[in-house]
Amino acid sequence: MDALILLIDDDESLRRVTEYNLALAGFRVVVAASGREGLERFNAVRPDLVVTDVKLGDMSGLRVLEKVKQEAPEVPVIVITAFGSIEMAVSAMQQGAFNFITKPFDRETLRLSCRKALELATLRNRNQQLTEEVNRLTGTEGMVTVNSAMAELLQTAVRVAGSEATVLITGESGTGKEVLTRLIHQNSPRREGPMVAVNCAAIPETLIESELFGHVKGAFTGAVASRKGRFQSAAGGTLFLDEIGELKIDMQVKLLRAIQEREVEPVGADRVESIDVRIVAATNRDLAAAVAAGEFREDLFYRLSVIPLHLPPLRERQEDIPALAHHFLKIFNAPPGVDFEKEAIDVMMAHHWPGNIRELQNTVERCLILRRGSRITAADLKLRQPRPTGEETRPQFDIPPEGISLEEVEKNLIKKALEMSRNNRSQAARLLKIPRHVLIYRLEKFDLN
Are residues 153 and 269 located together in one domain of the fold? Predict the structure, then answer.
């Protein structure tokens, strides 16, 4: 066997006998004579399995178990002791021990326990690898969530993936609109085709038509050869139109025609070409407001938003921050043992995250590069300061000479908070800085249920 076992025991004679028996069974073994030395060896060699006595002199073996599980939950730990009790065994198993063996024991008992622990660890590792591969193939990699609203959104996205309906994804910058599009694409019948992404805001106005629909040779200065557009390149797959709200009105007309007629006319051509693509559009703008302001065509808005999906900002799903941060540690291949201190997690949970998941990802990558040790501290985060909270940010109200109804002001503020949170009561309560049960009382008081 290639498995490496760390054996921690302060009894030299027993340690030597146990080391010999494990080596005879084919294991590689490193030893430590104390809890402190054992933890140092653990961090230095990162074994596949830890076997520790309970009484170590400088610290309890249960404390070693706790530290190992904090550093590497995937590493199994077997606890051995000559002073076993039911309470101690229960405590060890609750802390994550694989097995609890009382002395005296025969050598085959320990060998068998080590083999089973390593087999289970291998199976868990393979399961994790398979899960990550499934996530990669289905497009769910990076869509980590424990938030109920976000989970429901992902389920909706998977359900609509099987249709040909046009999808409009809204949300702030950095919330993962392209990742959600990839999820839809990978779960659709078009998964074998390409997914082509276009940032409409990044293409000069004079070139956007050619980029989308293509052009023929000589169509304009510099067109030395015919070129396919993004619609043609995405044939049989999905076309992702990001920042769709930045398109000018004249291009909106041509895009609407392409979507409705399922055909495009390359720049300079005297013919049209049929297209076979699924359209997913995204924007961080309020397109309904843009329609009202005459900046976006109403017919195109309704054509794009057959299936509307809204990605909430990270500050509205704070419970996802720890899982996302650890996900990015894995994505950036963090060395074994590198993790966040609790204070760092607390700081991240309290941060406003104006850049959303993209900002969190960049923060984790920066911490990995600039960290001073294996534990990432709050100081390592170097987060931008939160928005000002003084008088300058408080809404100012003018009281008219005839007076104003305080209840009406309160009622309107509650309506606005519910609108901003899309009727999420918990989020509305956070926006109003009141407990959720107080908000529910006021909803009943003002008959807003």
Answer: yes
**CA dihedral sign, ordered 200, 206, 211, 214:** positive
Q: How far apart are CA 354 and CA 319, in angstroms?
A: 16
d(CA 5, CA 357): 39
Together in a domain, 159 and 218: yes
- Dihedral, 362, 393, 345, 126 alpha carbons, nearest 10: -50
- pLDDT tens-digit readout, 126-142: 766 655 555 555 445 55
Regarding pTM above 0.85, the answer is no
**How would you class 277 by CB atoms within 10 Å of its CB: exposed for 0-12, middle for 13-18, buried for 19 or more?**
buried
Q: Are 194 and 173 members of one domain? A: yes
User: Which residues 6+ apart lie within 8 Å of 10 measured at CB?
Assistant: 33, 34, 53, 55, 56, 57
- Per-residue pLDDT of 396-434, as tens digits, reads 556 777 777 877 888 888 888 888 887 888 788 888 888
* Distance linking the first and last C-alpha atoms of the chain: 65
φ, ψ of residue 200 in degrees (nearest 5): -65, -25
Residue 125 makes CB contacts below 8 A (sequence gap 6+) with: 74
